[in-house]
Amino acid sequence: MKKIEACPLCGNNDFVSVRKAPYYRGKQEIFNIDSCTSCGFWFTNPQPEGAGLAAYYESEDYVSHTDGTGSLLDIVYNWVRNYALNKKLSIVESAVRNKNTLLDYGAGTGAFLARAKEKSWSVTGVEPSEVARKNAKLKGVDLLSVENRNVVKDGSCSAISLWHVLEHLPDLKESMLYFNAKLERDGVLFVAVPNHQSYDAEYYRDQWAALDVPLHLWHFSKTDIANLALATGFSLEKVYNMPFDSYYVSLLSEKIRASSMGPLKAMYRGFVSNLKGGNTKNMSSLIYQLRKS
Ligand SMILES: [Zn+2]
Questions:
Q1: pTM of the model
Q2: How far, in Å, is the centroid of ligand 1 from the Cα of 174?
Q3: What is the pLDDT of residue 220?
Q4: Which end of the chain is more exposed for a tag (fewer CB within 10 A), N or C?
Q5: What confidence score (pLDDT) does residue 26 get?
């Protein structure tokens, strides 16, 4: 386990514990989340690393590496994902100035890139899981391993996307600098991450599924993303709500609580969260549009 001694955003070394959350995908374990007393950034602390961290991804529950098995949650997940693919692509296309190369980092089974390819993008992707890379190949999408990520040339991408990926990357600032280097001038980085200031996050507290410890190493607010962007050569241009994530995360959270009538309660919480977060751009998950500055 790696103990974080200095805040990855501001360098301060004074933290306060804000959550004690369960690992819900396998054997019950509790992980601590600290908040920096200076800038307010939340991070899992301590964090598993290397093979220890990789072992937490081997759970059968980790649907992002496969295309699901057919449970109700998998069906909802896949349905939402399909809807979201089109929305994400339209967000990307409305922001970029050149439609050249799209890099999807943490591409999973390649669904987003396959859709982008249909829309005439030249696509490239990076994905650590070999199983996921093989699944992507079946869709006609070739993905690079993390070790080979520098095959992508500096300044060659008009857009880079990270759909629920940044919160998983151990080297936060280094990764952001890598994305900055790979983007062309005026290129755009799209980052989707959970928002711990949403209503559903406050409501479910330690059992909020999007804390997803220890797979999620970092837990972002809008302020954190703005700070991170500034420190790594980006400007935060726009924030989008992801309304379906509120329902999906509430469903998982009710599952962690082992609630009776969980799906019904989840629908209600998701609805309330979206109502409260709609105008203020404060839903369960947000997409950030960051332009290389
Ligand atoms: Zn800090």
A1: 0.92
A2: 17
A3: 98
A4: N
A5: 80
Helix (H, G, I), strand (E, B) or coil at 289: strand
Model pLDDT for residues 97-126, shown as the tens digit of each residue? 889 999 999 999 999 999 999 999 999 999
Residue 139 neighbours by CB distance under 10 Å: 14
DSSP three-state, residue 22 = strand
Decide: 1 and 49 in contact? Cβ < 8 Å.
yes
Q: In the chain, what are the domain boundaries? A: 62-216+232-292
**Rounded to the nearest whole angstrom, what is the distance from the C-alpha of residue 17 to the centroid of ligand 1?**
13
pLDDT, residue 244, reads 84
Instruction: Please give the distance, rounded to the nearest whole angstrom, from the Cα atom of residue 100 to the centre of ligand 1.
Output: 36
User: What separation in Å is there between the alpha carbon of 9 and the centre of ligand 1?
Assistant: 5
> According to the model, what pLDDT value does residue 64 have?
58
**Cβ pair 143, 133 in contact under 8 A:** yes
- 10 Å Cβ neighbour count for 255? 16
Strands 122-126 and 101-105: parallel
Which runs of consecutive H residues, i.e. helices, occur in the chain?
50-55, 72-95, 111-118, 130-138, 172-182, 199-204, 222-231, 243-257, 262-277
**Centroid of ligand 1 to alpha carbon of 260 (angstroms):** 39
Q: What distance in Å separates the CA atoms of residue 45 and residue 41, rounded to the nearest whole number?
A: 12
Write down the pLDDT at residue 291. 98
Centroid of ligand 1 to alpha carbon of 97 (angstroms): 34
> Alpha-carbon distance 158 to 188, whole Å?
7
The CATH number, out of the four listed (1.10.1780.10, 3.40.630.30, 3.40.640.10, 3.40.50.150), of the domain defined by the range 62-216+232-292: 3.40.50.150
Q: Pick from 249, 269, 264: which is nearest to 208 by CA?
A: 249
Q: How far is the CA of 244 from the centre of ligand 1 (A)?
A: 30
Give the residue ranges of the chain where pLDDT is below 50. none
Q: How far is the CA of 172 from the centre of ligand 1 (A)?
A: 13
